[in-house]
């Protein structure tokens, strides 16, 4: 084993790092987007112990911010539009920051110094801390796997010396994956309770004509959709935002923030053989989405 070089003049600074260095770990891995979101959210106070953040942490930060903004303890947070990208031209200079501007500032993908300031000390929300700890435990186990797998592989007999196993028999045999996506377990619709906190939104989803899961959301391919019409194999995402109350700049921002999630939902639905539709409340909202992605099917809802 090559000796580690810990020279005397640097002992006080590098002793601990040199003593614990593990050559087998290689370069540090980039943290996952979920872990980065949890760390960022840990800086802020939340009224729900961080449960919304943990639930949405796998999304991009703007989507997480938009969905969990309602449970941010905003009395302790100050927002400053230091970049000028979220300004509302009609707001007086001395007026309080409008909610749309505050969300725009908070949802910025990049952390801008001085844009979001928390008043007082922040204790990391319990659910967020638990999520961070779980990620660290999983990362430690993943780093330990290569050693164990290498030892196990070396202990096995060469492939050439093994006796052939009859095809379709034994513990290692698995049935072939079906080419029919509707037969895959993850593609079978499972009713799940509506996400809480937005009764008007859930009521609108339940009123969708021919919705086969009224009173429920539908879990398909790992994603919770608002409604499903089995007759046309169509999954729905319902948007009940008051889109037209915002100025044009804010409208464009909100449409961009939600675009990537809508595109992801479309991919997940189509991978299981479903169509995907977005329901909105205004022509302006539909036009904003279609400008960004003409391939998305968007319907102005007339039932709610």
Structure description:
By secondary structure, the protein is of the alpha/beta class. It has two domains: about 35-125, no CATH class; about 180-300, 3-Layer(aba) Sandwich (Trna Endonuclease, Chain: A, domain 1), CATH 3.40.1350. Helices cover about 35% and strands about 10% of the residues. It has a four-stranded mixed beta sheet. Helix 8 links the parallel strand 7 (about 235-240) and strand 8. Helix 2 (about 35-40) packs antiparallel against helix 6 and helix 8 (about 250-270) packs across helix 9 (about 285-290). It is globular and about 55 Å long. The termini are far apart. Mean pLDDT is about 75; it is low at about 1-30, about 90-95 and about 160-180.
SSE blueprint:
Layout: H1 11-20, H2 33-41, H3 51-56, H4 61-68, E1 77-79, H5 99-106, E2 116-118, H6 126-155, E3 190-192, H7 199-206, E4 217-220, E5 223-225, E6 227-229, E7 234-238, H8 248-271, E8 275-280, H9 283-292, E9 297-300
Parallel strand pairs: 7-8, 8-9
Antiparallel strand pairs: 1-2, 3-4, 4-5, 6-7
Strand content: 5-15%
- Estimate percent helicity: 25-40%
CATH class of the largest domain: Alpha Beta
Which structural class do you get from the secondary structure elements? alpha/beta
Shape: globular
Label the CATH architecture of the largest domain: 3-Layer(aba) Sandwich
As residue ranges, the low-confidence spans are 1-28, 89-95, 159-179
Q: How many E-type strands?
A: 9
Overall radius of gyration: 25 Å
Number of domains: 2
- What's the order of the H and E elements? HHHHEHEHEHEEEEHEHE
Strands in their spatial order, largest beta sheet: 6-7-8-9
Strand count, sense and barrel status of the largest sheet are:
4 strands, mixed
- Kindly state the mean pLDDT as a whole number? 77
């Amino acid at each position: 084993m090559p000796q580690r070089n810990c020279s005397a003049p640097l002992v006080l600074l590098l002793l601990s790092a040199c003593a614990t260095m593990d050559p087998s770990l290689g370069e540090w891995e980039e943290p996952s987007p979920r872990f980065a979101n949890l760390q960022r959210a840990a800086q802020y106070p939340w009224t729900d112990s961080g449960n919304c953040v943990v639930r949405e942490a796998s999304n991009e930060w703007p989507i997480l911010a938009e969905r969990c903004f309602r449970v941010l303890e905003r009395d302790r947070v100050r927002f400053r539009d230091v970049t000028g990208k979220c300004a509302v031209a009609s707001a007086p200079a001395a007026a309080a920051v409008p909610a749309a501007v505050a969300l725009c500032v908070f949802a910025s993908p990049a952390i801008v110094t001085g844009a979001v300031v928390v008043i007082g000390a922040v204790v990391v929300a319990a659910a967020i801390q638990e999520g961070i700890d779980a990620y660290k435990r999983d990362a430690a186990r993943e780093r330990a796997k290569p050693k164990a797998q290498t030892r196990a592989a070396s202990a096995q007999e060469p492939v050439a010396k093994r006796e052939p196993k009859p095809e379709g028999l034994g513990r290692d045999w698995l049935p072939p994956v079906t080419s029919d996506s509707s037969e895959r377990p993850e593609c079978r619709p499972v009713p799940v309770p509506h996400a809480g906190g937005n009764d008007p939104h859930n009521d609108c989803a339940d009123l969708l004509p021919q919705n086969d899961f009224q009173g429920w959301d539908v879990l398909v391919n790992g994603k919770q959709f608002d409604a499903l019409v089995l007759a046309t194999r169509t999954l729905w995402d319902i948007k009940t935002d008051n889109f037209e109350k915002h100025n044009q700049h804010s409208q464009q921002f909100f449409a961009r923030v939600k675009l990537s999630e809508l595109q992801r939902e479309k991919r997940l639905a189509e991978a299981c053989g479903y169509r995907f539709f977005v329901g909105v409340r205004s022509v302006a909202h539909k036009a904003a989405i279609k400008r960004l992605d003409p391939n998305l099917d968007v319907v102005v809802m007339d039932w709610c």
